Automatic annotation (TrEMBL):
Entries under InterPro entries matching the protein: YjbR, YjbR-like_sf, YjbR/MT2646/Rv2570-like
Source species: Pseudoalteromonas holothuriae
Domain of life: Bacteria
Protein name: MmcQ-like protein
One of the Pfam families matching this protein, by short name: YjbR
């Protein structure tokens, strides 16, 4: 998935919104005012010219570590709680279906922390 496809996938989630509360260049995706993802273009690091788009996704702590072991482009969450968030570099090394699965899990983790009434209205659309 590239950053355009990821944005479209985020916005296809029920009641998803996007804003830039951290400033220009960092899109924050929320459901009912709760963040489930970010999308940003990475900074140039040292002599590395290629800038990669990256997403931050909420994750179960055990799965977060497993994904980091499996995929070299999955890192501890950049500027996030590293136990609960992963940063995924959109370098094409992870199959699109796996990126979509990680996005789905992030969204569902946030929804499942909401009151039952809010959960029910969102889960109806999935």
């Amino acid at each position: 998935m590239d950053h355009h496809q990821v944005h479209q996938y985020f916005m296809s989630k029920p009641e998803a919104t996007v804003s830039q509360p951290f400033g220009e260049g960092v899109d924050v995706y929320k459901v009912k005012n709760k963040m489930f993802a970010t999308l940003a273009l990475g900074k140039k690091m040292g002599d590395v010219e290629s800038q990669l788009w990256r997403i931050n996704l909420k994750c179960d702590p055990d799965e977060a570590h497993a994904l980091r072991d499996i995929f070299s482009s999955v890192l501890p969450g950049y500027h996030m709680n590293k136990r609960l968030w992963n940063t995924v570099l959109l370098d094409g090394s992870i199959p699109s279906t796996e990126v979509a699965r990680m996005i789905d899990n992030s969204y569902l983790l946030v929804v499942k922390k909401m009151p039952k009434k809010a959960q029910a209205s969102l889960l109806l659309h999935l």
